[in-house]
Input
Amino acid sequence: MPGMSEAVPPISAAVVDPLQMGRDALSRHAWAEAFELLSQADREIQLSAVDLEAFALAAFFAAHAEVELEVKERAFKAHEAESNNLRAAYLALDVARTYGYAGKPSIASAWRRRAEQIIGPDGETYAHGYLALLRSEAAAATGDMETALALAERAVAIGTGAADADLKAYALTNLGALKIASGATSDGLALMEEASIAAVNGDLSPFTSGVTSCRMIGACRDLTDYRRASEWIEATERYCDRQSLSGFPGVCRVHRAEVAAVGGAWERAELELVRATTELGAYNAAPPQADGFYAIGDIRRLKGDFDGAEAALREAHALGRSPQPALALVRLAEGKTRAAAAAINAAVAEETWDRWARARLLPAQVEIAIAAGDVAGARTGVDELTEIVSGYPSPALEAGRQVALGRVLVAEGDPTAAARELRSAIKGWREVGAPYEVARARAVLSRALRAAQNEEGADLELGAALDEFRRLGARIDLEAAERELRDAEDRRNGPVSTRKTFMFTDIVGSTNLAEALGDQAWERLLRWHDDMLRKQVASARGEIVNSTGDGFFVAFESARAGVDCAISIQRALVDHRKSTGFAPPVRIGLHTAEANRRGADYSGKGVHVAARVAALAGGGEILATAETLAEAGDVSVSDSRTVPVKGVAAPVSLAAIGWT
Output
């Protein structure tokens, strides 16, 4: 009986043809197998331009994005060498788009010009269709919508005339997105659906199918049309399963997780998003990966994990997606109202032509403006939002608009009208299946009802919101609702008299400083100032009552704690000035007195005196009244004096505290 080596002789190397086997594997969509075989063939022989394109496709779907780009560039050169100028130009444009998505616009522009040099700027070939698409995208990026739309329509016409299904699908998708952005939402969706149905029916190449379907889903998400988005997610996933596509399911996972997050499944959604963003990194799929990081950041924001939220949002920003409005809402939740307003206002100002991009920002702008006391600005924002949403009033968009309008009406003093809007919003959010948004609308409704003297109704709505926040794990909203319930109870029981040491701080000459530094530098300085002051107050166990312009109103249990905190603030400013060369001049006033406490707020003569004392101080100075100094113990003082205070009959005795 022969041995095993005799029974199964080794296959001759001449019999193995990795190139043909690689082609066969590619036709079966066995991407990893095709990549390995074509890699072997590439090492052994010089591949043709067509085989290099096949190799690049296998590299993409096998998650070797860097190899894909390098091989595409080689395929371009091979087509040039074979005098196939049309295909060479097409590949140059394909490479240009890849570099553009990777955030390398200069290299992308160079490749686009290379294509133009080969085929000229005008023509009716399929390559000219792709050139028109890239030029359309460039025009849209500069806000030239008229040119962008005209070029996209030209690409559709070329794709139709050339019977190029992939080009036509790309062009329809691009044209549809532009129409949506410009306000012709229904027309735009119809164009994108025409392209997408061809994609999921298998009428397009695998890559084009994936891109087309994912852009359709993204458009639905941006319009908060979650029902339509879910339909296309399911259709796309079925197509990917049939075609053995591994890259695009990562994109679908991002979109499915976004929909799950709306439904309140935050933990499951975050796990899916982390998985998807990791997977997409292997494909250099920057735009959907950025969407995934943004969604992670927003979920973490809702859970109160602000450090985790900011880290994810910065990842999204690095990949080319704006971190707004989520990052501005983080700042608002942190109590940094000025920073939140600056961030959201800048984001809205940057969106000059995309109506729906503005619509996604405006609800946050309204909420932040009201928190900052800018009711007129909030009204302007909600009026614009109303005009935009009228063009495509999906249930979620309409509910979001009604909540924003409800906030404004409460601030304007019309709680009855606000309650009507908010009840309608709650119904709309229920239809969408968005429990967090239902709870948020209930919390705003409770304020409207309380303003209308309906305490029982207000408590009922706030209690329901509180229960939902607790179930979801919305820590910040839960704490805010609990505070509101306590404050309401305190108000019903009447004011409570208490003795506190009150501190007011203020940046001296803030208007001139902001003008001299510029908006960005000023906002960075304000953020440092606010963070530093909050840290010092927390260390002294103080209670920040509210933020007042460029300073803070703080209450302390003891005069000693207030004095020590004021000194620590001034010393921190000096240290910052020494290490960086500059710190804002801050004045501080302290007064110890009886005051009325209602909920988290204080009122009375003592609070008024503390504010007036701070206004008398100079930059870098701490002024304290005799009452504070008497209770604080051993304190170094100078410039003791008695001064008249507006609104107070008797003069006030005060002195400057030495802290250097």
The radius of gyration is 31 Å.
